[in-house]
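FORM 7B: Structural annotation worksheet

SECTION A. Query
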Amino acid sequence: MPISAQTWLQRLRELPLSSKTRIMNVCGGHERAIGMAGLRSALPASIELIPGPGCPVCICPEEDIYQAIQLALHERVILVAFGDMLRVPVNVPKKEVRSLEQARAAGADVRPIASPREAVKIAREQPEKSVVFFAAGFETTIAPVAGMLAEGLPFNLSVLLAGRLTWPAVAMLLASEAPGFDALIAPGHVATVMGPEEWRFVVERHHLPAAVAGFSPVSLLAATYSVLRQRLEGRVFLDNCYPEVVRPGGNPGARRQLQAVMEIVDANWRGVGIIPQSGFALKAEFAAHDARRLWPDYNDTARKRAGQMPPGCDCARVVLGKIYPNECVLYGYACTPRTPVGPCMVSDEGACRIWWSSGVREAARTQPVVSS
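SECTION B. Predicted structure
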């Protein structure tokens, strides 16, 4: 008989925890589930859940968003992107177009889509137009993009790729002098595609407890209990608390398509900088569908710099688990979902947006708070 969330909570409360344990949940979907279920307030005070670098919109390089905006404004293209990307601002004067949403308001043909198949459909329906698919995301998003390319694209469809791998950011944090967490909850959807084995380095190299979790309170509480038990018993391993979906080796078909279409490269993360071997790029044989090669004039390398968040925005430190969302000086004051300054308040997977939607409207300092 499955164990209920209430039972897991009781088991967690019975653990003999003598000191605070900081557990990082990598995934934005995990953070959203934690917020919606109110898990932070339900857990013992000695358990600290830290949101991590699991929002692809939040870390999408500023220069990539800028390139997409310029393509949409200055070329006769239909630019399609996942909905959250349309509202992410870039660092230009307010009088200039700062987002894809503003580009659309200025007359550019920018369309939100929910899946790569919609991009293919639009390209086939309008063969006289060039269609650019601005594809930002982690492994679970990029795998369908790879499948789309492997199957063959319409001649008029190209991809502006901003894909990233999840684990290298965690590896970077663990290699730093102050990682900021004592245990890890790994993303179940990424492990479903890539296999749970990607997260073994947390246990084998850094000797920290780790567990793969799904997106229900039950799975998240089971993973939390697992890493705490590991820590208490001094016996660390990678636990799979999402066995109904996550299998050893992941999804072989998806991994084959990723390997056939993509190469792994060093990549920039917005506000963080270059993380080695953390990005996807199209292989040379797909150059005819690579928007970067087709429109090189809009690839502004001068914009490639670390610290690309807007002035005052602490989104990068939120993404890296260095501060909580409401510790940003702009949270709830200059930055709200209606008037987002940084990408963490834009995306449904951004920790700032999640915290706000979960009812955390006051910042962790004395300052006027803007009502939603």
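SECTION C. Observations
The CA atoms of residues 7 and 218 lie 9 Å apart. The chain has one domain: 8-296.

SECTION D. Sign-off
Analyst initials: ____
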